[in-house]
Amino acid sequence: MTVTIYGIKACDTMKKAFTWLDEAGIDYTFHDYKKAGAPKSKVAAWIKREGWEVIINRRGTTWRKLPEDVRADMDAASAVDAAVENPSLIKRPVVEYPGGLLVGFSPDDWAVVLG
Fold first, then answer.
1. I want to staple 111 with a disulfide (CB 3.0 to 4.6 A). Which of 5, 81, 82, 115 is the partner?
2. H helices, E strands: number in the chain
3. What is the average pLDDT score of the chain?
4. Which residues have CB under 8 Å from 33's CB, separation 6+?
5. Peptide bond before 67: cis, by omega within 30 degrees of 0?
6. What is the rounded distance in angstroms from the CA atom of residue 4 to the CA atom of residue 1?
7. pLDDT bracket for residue 115 (50, 70, 90)
8. Would you say 93 and 6 are in contact if contact means Cβ atoms under 8 Å apart?
9. 91, 58 Cβ separation under 8 angstroms
10. How far apart are the C-alpha atoms of 115 and 113, rounded to whole Å?
């Protein structure tokens, strides 16, 4: 199985995810938001599938830096635009695997789905 992992290379959670995938022997391709941006079509599909509340990281500094009115009025469409403009808003990692999507790093969940 080959998966695609989306995120930011320097992120500590991403480093844990890469280590987990390597140790599990799972082949992956990596899409770095810092270098390649967040593809609008992908972000929109993720939000449609999981909901913006799952995809958008509301605990990070990027969220807190958004204007209060933008945070208060967030919906699926505005979340897509905000995430494309500020890829650091997207929870990390997002993993596309055959037939599904994982958001965030949970070794137990990953073992069930990818293991």
1. 115
2. 8, 4
3. 96
4. 6, 7, 8, 87, 88, 90
5. no
6. 10
7. confident
8. yes
9. no
10. 6
pTM here is 0.93
Report helix, strand and coil shares of the chain as percent, to nearest 5: 55, 20, 25
What is the pLDDT at residue 79? Answer: 98
Helix pair angle (76-85, 40-50), 10° resolution: 140
Of residues 102, 62, 97, the one with CA closest to residue 79:
62
58 burial (CB, 10 Å; 0-12 / 13-18 / 19+) is: middle
pLDDT of the residue at 48: 98
CATH class in words for 2-114: alpha beta
Q: 12-24 and 107-114 are packed helices; what angle lies between their axes, rounded to 10 degrees?
A: 40
Residue with tokens 């992908």: 42
Residues designated catalytic:
11
